[in-house]
Structures are given as C-alpha cells and as structure tokens.
Design goal:
About 40% of the residues lie in helices and about 15% in strands. The chain is an alpha/beta fold. Strands 2-3-1-4-5-6 form a 6-stranded mixed beta sheet, sandwiched between helices. A 6-stranded mixed beta sheet has the order 9-8-10-7-11-12, sandwiched between helices. Helix 9 packs parallel to helix 15. The longest helix has 23 residues. The protein is globular, with a radius of gyration of 26 Å. It starts with 16 loop residues before the first helix and ends in a 12-residue tail after the last helix. Bound molecules: 6-O-phosphono-beta-D-fructofuranose (F6P). The site of 6-O-phosphono-beta-D-fructofuranose (F6P) has 9 residues, from helix 16. Keywords: ATP-binding, Nucleotide-binding. One of its GO terms (biological process) is fructose metabolic process. It holds the Pfam family 6PF2K. This is 6-phosphofructo-2-kinase.
C-alpha cells in the first residue's frame, strides 16, 4: 500500500450509459476473475473533500483488522499521486476539462480494479475492502456497484458510508490540520494551499449528489451527519455491517488521552504464578501510591493544556483485587469491568510456566506456538471478543480514561489503539509499573511511556523507614 496523507478524489459528472460503456471497454476490472463473495465486504466512502472520509476509512480498517477481518483501504488520492505525482491544482478537478476528467476516472477505476484483485486473493478468508474516494455522484456509485457485481460482489455486500458535514469549525480544522499539510501541497504556503483546497471543494460541490432514498433505496448505506450527530441507515444487517455501524456511532474526532497501566506487582507475580486473584505485594502497594501521586501531579501540570489535561479523568479497572488495589488511592471516579479481567489460564491457573511445561508439555508447546488461537483455555482471540464492548465504550469517551488492567488484557487494548494486528500482539512487552499514554489522532495514535520503577524503589525505602515492611523486596519479572 502507498503510504501518504490522502486527499479526496474522484469527482464525476453524471455518466451516461454510452459513456459508461466506453469506460468498460478499457476497464481494468473486467479482466479479473470472480471473487468468492461468501466472506467479502466492500465499504465505499462517499462525501465532499474534508469530511473525514479517510479518517473514517482508517478507523474501520483498524477495527476490522483487530476483529480478525483482513481489511485494506484503497485510496484514490494515493493512486493519483502515484500515477501523476503530487501537486495537482484545483483545475485538475474541473469537470468540464475532458482530459483531466477521463484521467481521474481511470485513476479511480485502477484503484477499484486493485481492490477487486485484492479480494480475489485468498478467497476463503473473511475480508473487507474500503474504497476511499469522494464517489460523489450517483452515476459513479452506480458504476461501482456494476463493476463489483460483475466481480460477483452483490449489492448487499457493498456498504456506502457517506459523511455529511457543514459545521464550519470542523471543516476548517480538517483543512488546516490535515489537508494543507498533505503531500499535495508540499511546495505551497499555508495560504496558497488553503485557497486551492477551498476551490477544489467548490468544484466538487457543483456536481455532488448526496445519497437519497428516492434514488438509492436499494443500496446498503450509512449516512453520518455532522460527525455522528445523526445517522440514517438503509438495508444494514448482519454481523460485520452491525459492527461497522456500532464503531461509527461510538467513535469521534475529539482529541483525548488514554492511559494504560498494568496493576502493581501482585503476590502471585512474585511467585511467577499464572492467573489467580491475589493481593498486591509490598512492591505493588508502593506502585499504587506512586501511580496515584503521578496522576495527581500530571493533573496539576496539565491543567491548562486542553486535551492533554486530566480533568474529569475516570479510572477503569477489572474486578480483580490487584487492579482495584492499584487504583484505590487515586482520587477520581472508578469503574470496574468484568470484561477487563485477566486471560483465563484454565487448568494452568495458579501454576508457574515451568510447572505447566513439566506437567503438560504438549499443551505448553501448543500455546507457545499459537497463543492467539490456543484452543484449551482462553485465547487472545477469545479475549478480543470479550473486551470488544468495553472498547466501544472507550471509543465513546471524550474525557481521559486511565485503564488499570493486566498483561494480556493490556496487550489486546494496546493492539487496538495502536492499530496493530492482534495476532502480533501476544508478545508485546507490557512492563509492570509503567504508564503508557496513548493519544489517538487522525492517522492512528502516538504513544509515550512513563517508567515509574525508580519512584517505586524510593517509595519502598520510605515504607521500610515507616516500619511497614522489614526489608526491600526484590523485583519480580
Ligand atoms: O503472568 C502474569 C499474567 O498476567 C498471567 O496471569 C497470565 O496468565 C499471563 O500474564 C498472560 O501472559 P501470556 O499470554 O504471555 O502467558
């Protein structure tokens, strides 16, 4: 995939049947064999430029991949830049310019052809392809449906997602924060870029046709109005479309902070025992104090820093003693989630890894080889489906959240937030006594880590001086 900032493409004037036939003659999608449609879905983005389509496409892709549905975004803007290079001025989108118009069409259909070809590969897998372009006329949308239909992808497996937004504040933010920083405007000043981009929007507005029931009642579609204020849905049913709808209804673009920490060291951690519901060790209790102080300090430091601030922070824990004890001194609201309880190690609960290896060598080796799909006991795959409703709730939050979870649980949440494939997350190091700060943004998320181990060591010395412990315990792994 080409990786650069995307800009909306693919303006169409209404294509007559004759024009469309002309397109099909040289259509790159025609030569492709049929796609087995049993498992495939196509999401087709619709909307004027700067309506957050690429952001939504990336969100859907991240979520679907995390759920185990192989998903890829095909962005028409990236194809244009690959074929023509960056820097097209707004005139390029003028519908009356015949040559440019047919070039744009070709670019769009090349992206669509690749999308179909991609669905073709490894047919037996469940896949979701996202066509990220403006697809702003009825004719274009109807052509897309025809082309997909010819590749054996029926209408009910194609979901149009239209983003309608006329809030000047949001549009201005999208243009200033994302569009003018695009690869297209690398040679231009901010003013030049903004002016050109606004002209580009105008050329699209002249021919844009929103999805309407009187024409489109046979299509599956989701219309999002003003970034989720209102939703209109038509012919949406089944598991994947349902999950996409739930994501769109819960996610938003308000910047906020998510903090992720494991519980403090537990009694079982000190013995290397899996699972269980033990209390915190002295070192873990020291972390509970240090974490509370850290959050309070950061709250003071960030008071005036807009979305980085910890105002109205909520603390989420599992229902296990070690996470609740870790949160106990933090002076903010707390919520306990059973879905955040640690992975269930089944008959291995309460054993060390060495004991499991000795007494159940086959099971131990099978899990080492595939923790993601391990069939006996809870797998990481099972956990994704257990944690998913909590993640939708996390997506909905606009205020900061501190999650105090467990090693496996935090791996799964981290993989989602950082856009990692869950199958790759089973070994992600989630060290004890470390806070990960994650800031979701238009392109994914950034991460910062705070290692609090030194502060825990200092707190242990104070505990010794206060007579709360009789020696400084060693650190477990
Ligand atoms: O060892 C701590 C722990 O949270 C256990 O309770 C749990 O079984 C384990 O980590 C999960 O990690 P992994 O999947 O690497 O075995």
């Amino acid at each position: 995939m080409i990786n650069c900032v995307s800009v909306d493409e693919d303006l169409d004037k209404v294509e007559s049947d004759a024009e469309e036939d002309e397109v099909f003659k040289t259509d790159p999608t025609i030569s492709h064999p049929q796609v087995s449609s049993n498992f495939s879905f196509v999401v087709v983005m619709v909307g004027l430029p700067a309506r957050g389509k690429s952001y939504i496409a990336r969100q859907i892709s991240k979520y679907m991949n995390w759920l185990g549905v192989q998903t890829e975004v095909f962005n028409a803007g990236e194809y244009r830049r690959k074929i023509l290079g960056p820097g097209q001025k707004y005139e390029f989108w003028d519908t009356n310019h015949k040559e440019n118009y047919s070039m744009r069409k070709k670019i769009s259909y090349t992206a669509l052809a690749d999308l179909i070809q991609w669905l073709q590969e490894h047919k037996s897998q469940q896949k979701c392809a996202i066509f990220d372009a403006t697809n702003s006329t009825r004719a274009r949308r109807s052509t897309i449906l025809k082309k997909l239909g010819r590749a054996n992808i029926p209408k009910h497996r194609v979901i149009f997602v239209e983003s309608i937004c006329n809030d000047p504040k949001i549009l201005n933010r999208n243009i200033m924060d994302i569009k003018i920083k695009s690869y297209d405007y690398q040679e231009a000043t901010s003013e030049e870029a903004k002016e050109d981009f606004l002209s580009r929007i105008k050329t699209y507005e002249e021919v844009y046709q929103t999805i309407e029931d009187r024409f489109d009642s046979e299509m599956s579609y989701i219309k999002m109005v003003e970034v989720g204020k209102k939703f209109v849905m038509n012919k949406i049913g089944g598991y994947i479309p349902g999950r996409i709808t739930s994501l769109l209804m819960n996610s938003h673009i308000t910047p906020r902070t998510i903090l992720l920490s494991r519980h403090g060291e537990s009694e079982d951690n000190t013995k290397g025992l899996l699972g269980g519901d033990s209390q915190l060790s002295p070192r873990g209790r020291a972390y509970a104090k240090v974490l509370s102080e850290f959050i309070t300090e950061q709250h003071e430091l960030r008071r005036n820093y807009d979305y980085l601030s910890f105002n109205n922070i909520t603390v989420w824990t599992s229902t296990m003693k070690r996470t609740m004890m870790t949160s106990s001194q933090i002076p903010y609201d707390k919520l306990q989630w059973r879905q955040l309880d640690e992975i269930d190690a089944g008959i291995c609960e309460g054993m060390t890894y060495a004991q499991v290896e000795e007494s159940m060598p086959k099971e131990f080796a099978a899990r080492q080889a595939d923790k993601f799909g391990y069939p006996r006991g809870e797998s990481y795959h099972d956990m994704i489906y257990r944690i998913e409703p909590t993640l939708m709730e996390l997506e909905r939050q606009r205020e900061p959240v501190l999650i105090i979870g467990h090693q496996a649980v935090n791996r799964v949440i981290y993989a989602y937030l950082m856009g990692k494939k869950p199958i790759d997350c089973v070994e992600i190091p989630i060290p004890l006594h470390t806070v990960m700060e994650i800031l979701p943004n238009a392109y994914g998320a950034t991460e910062k880590r705070y290692d609090l181990n030194d502060r825990v060591d200092k707190e242990l010395i104070k505990m010794l001086e206060r007579g709360e412990i009789d020696h400084i315990p060693k650190q477990s792994h």
